[in-house]
Fold:
Amino acid sequence: MSGKVTRLVLTVDGQKYEVVARPDATLAAVLREDIGLTGTKVMCEGGECGSCTVLIDGNPVLSCLTLAVECQGRYIETIEGLADPISGELHPLQKEFVERSGMQCGICTPGMLMTAKALLAENPDPSEDDVRQALAGNLCRCGNYKRITECVLAAAKTMRGGER
Amino acid sequence: MGCSQHIDATSVTEAISILQSQGDKAVLVAGGTDLVGMLNNRLISPETLVNIKTIPGMDYIREYSGGLRIGALTRIRDIETSAIIREYFPVLAEAAVSVGSPQIRRMGTLGGNFCQEVRCWYYRRSPATGKTFTCYRKGGNVCYATSGDNRYHSVIGGKKCFAACPSDMAVALASLHAHATLAGASGTRSVPVEDFFIPLGNILKPGEMLTEVSIPALKPGSRQKFLKFRHRKTIDFALCSVASVLEVEAGVVADASLVLGGVAPFPYRAKAAEQVLKGQPLTEDLASEAGAAALRAARPLSLNAYKVTIGRVLVKRAILGVDM
Ligand SMILES: Cc1cc2nc3c(=O)[nH]c(=O)nc-3n(C[C@@H](O)[C@@H](O)[C@H](O)COP(=O)(O)OP(=O)(O)OC[C@H]3O[C@@H](n4cnc5c(N)ncnc54)[C@H](O)[C@@H]3O)c2cc1C
Ligand code: FES
Ligand code: FES
Structure:
């Protein structure tokens, strides 16, 4: 592939990375191929599956349809930053996914977790329907939706301090 | 060749002047939900990407004398959640919530929704698969859908290209008699939303862009409904959709606006159905009659006559205000 490259500085999970990329490179490609953070998954490259969802300034965004150059100066969060960076302790969402079998093959899981994280930041006490609506753009080809919804509701409860 | 630069435009004038000086080598990037997919599939290979999200003051929903002005950079999600739109233009809020997925609605803009490319699978076939269909839209002289698999194509108004207009927002906005404002080097012009679309694309001239959509004031109390039939409820384009705006006085239809999506290369105004309704007492039979009239002009291709059946029922239900 031809075309000019530019130097970009991206802040991912609190860390700065300097990469050299083409102006039409997607954030998904830069995260995975240039930075080496392969936790973010790419299934369709077309916006249909949500597996590449990351948070940009807290917003769930499809990294396969986002140009990397447009993410400079923004706060990018990926699955790699979800667990506690120092202790390594898993996020309540991750714990529930482990304990309640929230994943089967696991390909959709990073996108599910990031989308769910954004939901719980906006709405700490979601109904089952709220969770299903929020995750409507995340395809699980294993069809594990019911358990995924249960995991998010359980994590929400833990994060609220266990009440209800 | 190849993509060589990305420019953060800071004004409409700047974006237009780049488009003018670079011709089809430059493309505008709004939310990127359609455009970046086209790039990923190597369907386009622009030299310059012009980011218009950096243009200030184009993301707004503003009231003016009973009507509404919506900036081209307004996100679909902001339209879906706007209190004014939910209250006074529910047909538009219902269309917005039906677009793509939550992520697509947070990223995608109104301008991009209007200017997105069609979803015809011949046109969209990625050359990376080793096969390309050089159809009318790509400068060829055939529409592969006419003799191929045309189950998702137009049943009305196809001319050369039979791909259906994919924009849900345009269908709702046409039913509200909205106008699109287009800006070019020589100033701006305003066109009715349904006239923005033409069988091979839209009426934007080289060097023009969409800046705003404006909705005129509506009489209070109009009955509005948007219904969309699709394979997957969570995320899918319309196989057929209907936006209906009715003024009903003492049980009689005083005015009617009916626009269909997914059936034509543009939002299709069902004038015959509007005529059937006007001045008549609103009954279930009248709604059925309007449904039949709405699709009377349809000339289905080999595999898409089902759209006619669905369209009739959707029109009837939208008029009666019932859900799917
Ligand atoms: C999985 C998926 C599902 C979808 N489902 C739906 C659906 O159900 N209904 C629906 O209506 N749409 C759907 N879409 C299309 C979706 O891309 C649009 O809804 C979205 O609003 C496009 O906006 P954008 O800002 O991302 O456009 P972009 O991708 O940034 O731009 C699209 C095109 O418009 C041009 N453009 C952008 N802004 C302007 C402007 N102001 N003036 C002139 N040209 C401009 C760009 O150059 C480009 O050619 C779907 C898309 C995907 C990927
Ligand atoms: S890989 Fe981005 S939505 Fe499927
Ligand atoms: S667990 Fe396999 S795709 Fe969801």
